[in-house]
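Reopening this one. Same input as before:
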Amino acid sequence: MKINKTELTKTVFVPKEIILDPIPKILFIGRSNVGKSTLINKVIKRKQMAKTSSRPGKTISINYYLINDEFYLVDLPGYGYSKISKTDQARVNKLMDAFFNITNNIKLVFSLIDSRHGYLKSDMQALSSILEKNLRILTIFTKSDKLSNSVLKNQLKNQQTTYGLKVIPFSAKYENSEFEILESIEKGLEE
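Same output, byte for byte:
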C-alpha cells in the first residue's frame, strides 16, 4: 500500500461531531504515551501530522485522517496514565462510549502496547470493550528498539501464546518498520 494523500479531516471532542459516513475506518488505540502519534506519522510519512508530546494524555480528542480519499485512520484518545482533569476524563470516556456505539464500517483496530511492559490491566480493560463488538484486532508492540532482540523475541512469543493475538513489533527508529502495518491495513480494507 502506498499513501499518496493524507488530510486531517476532523478533530472530535463531543459525540455529536463523530463522523458517521460509510468510509472504512482503521483505528489506533493505546495507553497514554505509548507512541500512537509517532506511529501514525511514520505510517503516513508525515513528520508532524499527528501531534506528538512528551506529556501523557495529549490526545483527548478523536482525530480522523483521510488517507488517499479512501479510508480514515482514526487516532483515539489514550487511556491509563494521563494528567488530565476529571472533567476532561469523564468527557473522553463519554466520547469513547459514543464512538464505539455509533461508528460503522470499522475494518481493523490496532491496539498499541508498550513492548517493555506487555499487556497491562488498563490495556485488557480497553480491549474487553472492543472484543465485545467483534472487531478485528492486531497488536503493535511500540518502542521495540528499547529491548534487545532476544528479549523482544521472547516477549512477542509470550504475548502471542498467552493471548492468541498477532503482534507486530514497531520502532520509529527502524527503517521500514511500518511496512507490516501498511500491509495489514491493506488486508483489513479488503475484508
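So the earlier flakiness isn't reproducible anymore. For the record, The two ends are 15 Å apart (CA to CA).
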